[in-house]
Write a structure and sequence with these properties.
Elements: H1 4-15, E1 29-32, E2 35-45, E3 51-54, H2 58-66, E4 73-77, E5 82-86, E6 91-105, E7 165-168, E8 171-176, E9 179-181, E10 187-190, H3 194-202, E11 209-213, E12 218-222, E13 228-230, E14 234-238, E15 268-270, E16 276-284, E17 290-294, H4 299-308, E18 314-317, E19 330-333, E20 341-352, E21 378-380, E22 385-394, E23 401-404, H5 408-416, E24 423-427, E25 432-436, E26 444-457, E27 490-493, E28 496-501, E29 504-507, E30 512-514, H6 520-528, E31 535-539, E32 543-547, E33 558-561, E34 566-570
Length: 585
């Protein structure tokens, strides 16, 4: 008869759950692709997902993570029906989420069919199991996709590679040959190579370091630091120290936004207030005066403590230390420069010069009032008031008055003539001048605008020159399409596009008047609002004269050149190409 082991295996397979939901199944586990996950209802994982795609349900979200070699945990977002895949992260509370939390690699049970049994003699179908050797529960980890460092070796061996480094998944390990941990291990599993043992540790967020036994090909993972001792195997020990220590500060250091060591040793980073720091991994100050002690949660937070204290010139951070019982892991100094003091387990940074780049030649030209030459220049108005000009910007504050002016200079001159006006925003496209009372630089970036604000008077009309004629000039008329500049162009009105034909007219016996239009643009809008209008003439002094597709006799309008009117042809109606119509004399 089948052994009890086989029977239990069969029961487990039959009873395996195929669908999960929250909160009913919170705390339950599932195994997919040899990966064991625990369902944590009302929980999420901190950090940005590397993938977030639509997903049918919680169960499918676990399957999506298991199929992706980079995924460690996955979160199902019920509101959006999406599955977010995470490489790592801490758990946090959120009632709207459900998370599959990776537990370990396992061997999925497979159903076993019992062989025919001779009932006269009991048969044991199981083979003896050697429990002294761990089972290989994992396949080699695929470290493709940017995790591997290009300086890594293809393989590692002792004693030839003693002290060599292996960088994977953002972690740096140093090989210590004939060395092992003095205390017990968290988990041991069969592993094909020394390099693979480091990869497995790097891809498990709970693993700190690992031992590899050459004889048995076993990789033993360690959760926390422990004393090392002599041994026949080898250890991969995490390090945050640079391989080669700098003898002096780099003349032109690289800028970074990450404080991860040792990858960013010798680089500079910026604090929130614009202060720049030079990072030295595994270093401390050579002899700086201690300003204060702080308890922080990260390297970045320690740097910000230095930023907040204006007396701070450098700081030291202890990574991995759990701040408890008031023990500080961040130390601030009142002075500091490049340090020659090497100290494993701590990182040091000092205030340094900000990065520079080659100066760009200015496009500014004195006395210009046109961009880009006017940017940052002073304009002296006819009344003697000074204005600072700013290109590609506008104030955007409450407008005192809006007028159309032919140029930016005319706009500023008009502002100077009004006692209440302190600023002017000018839009060359529409020739609109927006007068305001803002006395500061414009705060809104806008490429379509040029602005100016008053810096006060420099003495009556001492600066009066060609701008004097702008002081009492009248505003320009309202902006509108005109035949002086727009012949043959498209005109948009009421959601319709029209082609403008200056000095051309439609003629038909079925024409009718569109009342209310006072200019070319209003005539176009009136035609757009009238379905019967398939072409329209704007006749100055007489109004808007529309033409249907056909007159009462079934004839189409004619089209020809005439000085008395300007024609507009709607592009989505029957006379979109009026040149094809019969010409009239």
């Amino acid at each position: 008869m089948p052994s009890i082991t086989i029977l239990l295996t069969l029961v487990a397979v039959v009873a395996a759950q195929t669908q999960y939901s929250c909160p009913a199944d919170s705390g339950k586990t599932t195994v997919v692709n040899s990966k064991k996950y625990e369902l944590k209802c009302a929980k999420g994982i901190k950090g940005m997902p590397f993938e977030e795609e639509p997903c049918t349900d919680v169960t499918a979200c676990a399957q999506r993570c298991a199929a992706n070699p980079e995924c460690l945990h996955s979160t199902f977002i019920d509101k959006t029906k999406k599955c977010a895949l995470k490489k790592e992260g801490e758990v946090f509370d959120n009632a709207a989420l459900a998370t599959w939390y990776f537990v370990e690699k396992v061997v999925e049970p497979k159903p076993v069919e019992p062989k025919p049994v001779d009932n006269t003699k009991p048969v044991d179908n199981t083979k003896p199991v050697d429990n002294t050797k761990p089972v290989d529960n994992q396949k080699p980890i695929d470290n493709s996709g940017g995790k591997e460092d290009p300086e890594n070796q293809a393989s590692y061996a002792c004693p030839a590679d003693q002290g060599k480094r292996y960088v994977t998944n953002g972690k740096t390990y140093e090989l210590k040959c004939n060395t092992g941990h003095a205390q017990g291990h968290w988990r041991a599993e069969s592993c094909p190579t020394l390099k693979e043992c480091a990869s497995r540790c790097a891809n498990d967020p709970q693993c700190f370091s690992s031992d590899f036994d050459e004889g048995s090909r076993v990789c033993a993972l360690k959760k926390a630091p422990a004393v090392t001792t002599g041994w026949s195997g080898h250890v991969w020990w995490p390090t945050e120290c640079p391989k080669t220590r700098q003898a002096s500060a780099a003349a032109k250091p690289v800028v970074t936004t990450s404080l991860t060591c040792p990858q960013n040793d010798g680089k500079i980073f910026e604090g929130s207030d614009g202060t720049w720091f030079y990072l030295q991994c595994c270093s401390d100050a050579d002899g700086a005066v201690i300003l204060d002690y702080k308890v922080v949660s990260s390297h970045k937070e320690c740097s910000e403590e230095c930023v907040k204290n204006k007396q701070c010139k450098s700081f030291m951070f202890i990574p991995g230390m759990e701040p408890a019982g008031g023990h500080a892991n961040c130390r601030l100094y009142t002075n500091g420069n490049f340090s020659m003091t090497r100290l494993e387990g701590v990182h040091y940074a000092f205030v340094t010069d900000p990065p520079t780049k080659d100066a760009e030649l200015s496009d500014a030209k004195r006395c210009s009032t046109e961009c880009p030459s006017a940017d940052g220049q002073l304009y002296v108005s006819p009344t003697g008031e000074n204005f600072l000009m700013s290109c590609k910007a506008r104030h955007g504050t409450t407008v005192l008055k809006t007028e159309r002016r032919p140029s930016f200079e005319a706009c500023m001159a008009s502002c100077a003539a009004m006692p209440a006006c302190q600023s002017a925003d000018y839009e060359p496209r529409t020739k609109k001048c927006f007068f305001g009372n803002n006395t500061k630089r414009p705060a809104i970036t806008a490429e379509a605008f040029v602005s100016a604000h008053s810096l006060g008077c420099s003495g009556a009309c001492a600066g009066c020159k060609k701008g004097c004629d702008q002081v009492g000039s009248s505003p320009m008329p309202a902006d509108a399409a005109t035949c002086a500049e727009d012949h043959g162009k498209l005109i948009a009105a009421a959601g319709q596009d029209f082609r403008l034909y200056c000095s051309h007219c439609f003629r038909s016996s079925g024409h009718f008047i569109l009342p209310g239009a006072t200019n070319l643009a209003e005539c176009a809008k009136a035609c757009a609002d009238e379905p019967r209008c398939h072409g329209v003439n704007w006749i100055a002094g007489k109004g808007c004269n529309a033409h249907p597709e056909r007159d009462p006799g079934g004839n189409r309008p004619t089209f020809g050149q005439e000085a008395t009117c300007h024609a507009l042809a709607p592009l989505d109606r029957s006379m979109a190409e009026p040149e094809s119509l019969q010409k009239h004399s």
